[in-house]
Design a protein that fits this description.
Layout: H1 2-13, E1 55-61, H2 69-75, E2 78-82, E3 88-93, H3 95-102, E4 107-112, E5 115-118, H4 126-129, H5 143-148, H6 152-155, E6 174-179, E7 193-198, E8 209-210, E9 213-214, H7 218-227, E10 253-258, E11 265-267, H8 268-280, E12 285-288, E13 290-291, H9 297-308, E14 312-316, E15 334-340, E16 356-361, E17 365-368, E18 374-381, E19 388-390, E20 397-405, E21 424-428, H10 436-445, E22 448-453, E23 476-479, H11 481-487, E24 494-502, E25 504-507, H12 510-527, H13 533-543, H14 563-571
Parallel strand pairs: 6-10, 6-12, 7-10, 12-14, 14-15, 15-16, 20-21, 21-22, 22-23
Antiparallel strand pairs: 1-3, 1-4, 2-3, 5-11, 5-13, 8-9, 17-25, 18-24, 19-23, 20-24
Helix pairs in contact: 7-12, 8-9, 12-14, 13-14
């Protein structure tokens, strides 16, 4: 973040020459500006990259015969995983090697090793990003979502912000977060981790990142929703107090399985490896905020083995917004979770369908993030301080200047005659055909020191956007619809924007909804250690707050997960 802040200052410094020499007469561009993503070689891993021309496959062999690794190697293939709960192995093969294996009498079938992606912010389509907003309160108070899922009614009945003595907090239950890894030294998560495994680099360091660069932060965010422990020293002011925040099950133990690369991608075989590892480590819950591909015999075998072995697998329904629950959430052995906003309305991007089980908060969710990679924004316009959200990965800093309307930011003259290479704050109106990063590049080249994105299409909310993690950017935020109305009347006024680096972030997606259900499931297993996954699932579904037509429906499943209701359904009335 410090490096980006320095680049941001260099961008501003490039706007200092006299006005007579500051613009390219043909393109209305300030000289010396570096804006946007810097081209560089993609950072990835052998298990995810396809640059070697080999196809990732899962080779399923006939029971009792088996396909020895030696046979795959003999043909020139590369074995990447062996499965214990299915007669199969994963490999990378050329078309010729695949054909030879298909003709082997011991091979039953060759299945695709599909690509999966995170189901959080970075994977939302542009149309979804332009309509995903702040919660109804517009505040940084994370406890509202814990109240909505009744977590506080289980372990903080007196409302003092700490678990009650003897309350059920998930203690003794292991939750396996199969994701991008996480910031293993985050102060509110490090004491929760009992084991970790990186399935991309094949080691026990599940840090979210590669070669000194942070990854997406997705796994850190998900893990915090499940089991963050408060009061451990995270930097979150002024939105959070020194006590920080807590997860749904603040006493649960975390198993961290890194399967997503720094671009938020992986393959099914890597996920299945992680599922088997979670089982071996004694997890009662596995949380999967990722989606992609279709069911195969091998994936169904392994998810069923997890269920039969006592582990409840919870997965994100997907962000496509269509009538089709994504895989693996749609697997018959997996519990699928969709997302609702702070008014308990299904968010339009949340996929729905016959396999949908439960809903949970999935909009503007505040949780842990890699240290210093998150930021909290403060926007000042005269005496007004409109609610705002910083763009993920935008550089931090403090800047000011006159507010200039730059329209959609779609062209290099979008800011008009009011722009200046001496610097200004660009006010941009999002458009479906102009990606946020493209708008930022265009207004930066016209001299913008910072960017404010309006939220005219969001009822009571502000978008949660991001910029690429590499490159030269300036501080940027989104604002609420109400604030957008005010800003439109203040063009030309001096505006100050401050982004402070913190250890937390706001994100949206079914990725964020999933760990709420995972955390509630951990509470139930903690209250009744001998419960089976089927019993816990039945308690969760029977006690959910009905959101649509009476009973189950394809838009909302059984409804909003309710921790206290599920606890009483499983173990009896609470005092």
């Amino acid at each position: 973040m410090k490096r980006w802040g320095f680049i941001g200052l260099m961008v501003l410094a490039g706007c200092m020459p006299d006005e007579s020499e500051k613009r390219d007469a043909q393109r209305n561009v300030c000289p010396g500006i570096t804006a946007g993503e810097v081209p560089q070689a993609p950072r990835t891993t052998q298990k995810v990259t396809l640059e070697d021309g080999r196809e990732p496959v899962i080779i399923r062999y006939r029971q009792g015969q088996g396909v020895a690794e030696a046979r795959v190697h003999q043909l020139g293939g590369r074995v990447t995983a062996n499965f214990r709960h299915a007669p199969a192995l994963a490999a990378r093969v050329t078309p010729e090697e695949r054909l030879a294996l298909a003709l082997d009498p011991s091979v039953e079938s060759i299945e695709p090793d599909a690509e999966l992606r995170a189901t959080g912010l970075s994977s939302l389509p542009l149309g979804a990003l332009s309509r995903v907003g702040l919660g109804a309160s517009g505040t940084g108070d994370y406890t509202g979502k814990l109240q909505r899922v009744q977590a506080l009614e289980v372990w903080d009945r007196d409302g003092d912000g700490v678990p009650d003595p003897g309350a059920v907090t998930g203690a003794g239950v292991r939750v396996c977060v199969i994701d991008s890894g996480m910031d293993m030294n985050h102060p509110e998560l490090r004491d929760a981790v009992v084991a970790a495994r990186d399935f991309l680099d094949d080691d026990d360091d599940a840090t979210d990142g590669e070669e000194g660069h942070w990854g997406t932060g997705h796994g850190t965010h998900v893990a915090g929703i499940v089991a963050a422990r408060a009061g451990m020293g995270g930097q979150g002011g002024p939105v959070l107090t020194e006590s920080g925040l807590m997860g749904v099950a603040p006493g649960a133990q975390l198993l961290v399985a890194r399967v997503l690369d720094v671009n938020g991608r992986t393959h099914m075989s890597v996920v299945l490896e992680a599922v088997e590892w979670c089982m071996s480590q004694g997890a009662r819950v596995a949380s999967l905020s990722l989606a992609g591909g279709l069911a195969t015999f091998t994936s169904e075998d392994i998810f069923k083995a997890a269920l039969d072995g006592g582990m409840l697998v919870v997965a994100a329904a997907g962000n496509e917004g269509q009538y089709l629950v994504s895989y693996p959430a749609s697997d018959p052995s997996v519990l699928a979770v969709g997302a609702v906003d702070d008014l308990d309305r299904r968010v339009h991007f949340s996929s729905r369908g016959e396999q949908l089980s439960l809903m949970a908060p999935g909009v503007d969710v505040l949780s842990t993030f890699p240290r210093g990679l998150g930021s909290f924004a403060q926007l000042e316009l005269g005496k007004a301080r409109p609610a705002s959200r910083s763009l993920l990965y935008a550089p931090t800093g403090n800047t000011w200047g006159p507010l200039v309307d730059c329209g959609h930011g779609g062209t290099l003259d979008s800011c008009g005659e009011d722009s200046s290479c001496d610097g200004f704050i660009a006010y941009v109106h999002p458009h479906a055909y102009v990606r946020p990063e493209r708008a930022m590049v265009n207004v930066m080249k016209q001299g913008a020191r910072a960017v404010i994105f309006a939220s005219e299409l969001v009822e009571g909310g502000a978008e949660i956007l991001s910029v690429p993690q590499q490159g030269a950017w300036v501080p940027a935020v989104t604002i609420t619809q109400a604030a957008s109305t005010v800003m439109g009347r203040q063009l030309g006024a001096t505006t100050r924007l401050t982004l402070r680096p913190v250890d937390y972030a706001y994100m949206s997606g079914t990725s964020m909804a999933t760990p709420y259900v995972s955390g509630v499931a951990a509470l139930l297993f903690s209250a009744r250690p001998g419960a089976t996954p089927a019993q816990v699932r039945a308690a969760l579904e029977s006690s959910a707050k009905d959101l649509g037509p009476a009973g189950w429906d394809s838009d909302h499943g059984h409804g909003l997960v309710q921790a206290r209701g599920a606890m009483e359904a499983l173990v009896g009335p609470m005092p």
